Amino acid sequence: MSIDSPVLRKKKKNKIKVSFADRIINAITYIIYSIFAFVCVYPFYYIFINTISANNLSERGKVIIWPKEVHFTNYTEVLKIPDLFQALKVSVARTVVGTVVTVIIAAFLGYMFTRETLWKRKFWYRFVVATMYFNAGIIPWFITMRNLRLTNNFWGYIFPMAVSPFYIVLCKTFVENTPKELQEAAEIDGAGTLKIFFRIIIPVIKPILATVSIFSAVTQWNSFQDTLLLVTDKKYYTLQFLLYQYLNQATSLSALINSNVSAESLAATLARAQTATSVRMTVTIVVVTPILLVYPFFQRFFVKGIMIGAVKG
Length: 313
Prior knowledge:
Layout: H1 6-14, H2 20-51, H3 55-59, H4 73-78, H5 84-112, H6 121-130, H7 138-147, H8 165-176, H9 180-188, H10 193-204, H11 206-222, H12 225-230, H13 239-258, H14 270-273, H15 276-307
């Protein structure tokens, strides 16, 4: 192919010319977003390198950029924490069951609020949305949960989060942007409400279901306040609540070590082998890692679910 061939001339003609001002703007944009990404990622990186560095150096704040005197004994010690695996099972169970229940209810209500045949449709929709802005407070909520016998009960994690107005609004907006002809054709063929929902609506709105799933899963996984208020039985403790407990205990043990109060009596405890900082950071990594690993699998659905419905056509 010669230098002056038609193909090369066409490529040169179609090449977009970028002005100097555009290059400056692009460079500034890359720099700003790089700084923003660094600010988001660095805290996780900082915690991780401190968990695998020498505990005495980590305690004194000597580990900033690179790990020092790398070891992994902190993780082996954390795995010896009593009730850790029981708490892991509870956290996984509440995340899976709670997410499934929340997604199904949000999708079904979002679909029903788009049907004009629903009795008092606008009233019930506004009634549900109003709960986003008004609530009775913690004490009435706790009394209600106690009267419903949801204290020291696994379902106390599931039912309060089953109906989420924000997720319902997302699903309703998405359903409104789906072709109405699909539902009308199914109705002509004799399909009922449930059949249309499971056979027609669910396959069409998968992107928003993935979005709601990741929102709900993160909320369920990170929640610890409901355990603090409702649960006293250790078999229902979650990982996040254990993290909350060990953060407080690590602070107390650190005060004991710094004041040299009966250090020998702590020889067999976690504080003797670990520092308060190592306990806090290692447990944090153990608790946060599972949800971080799940998120990338939902990312493409997450972006699509958020964007669809934002622009009306």
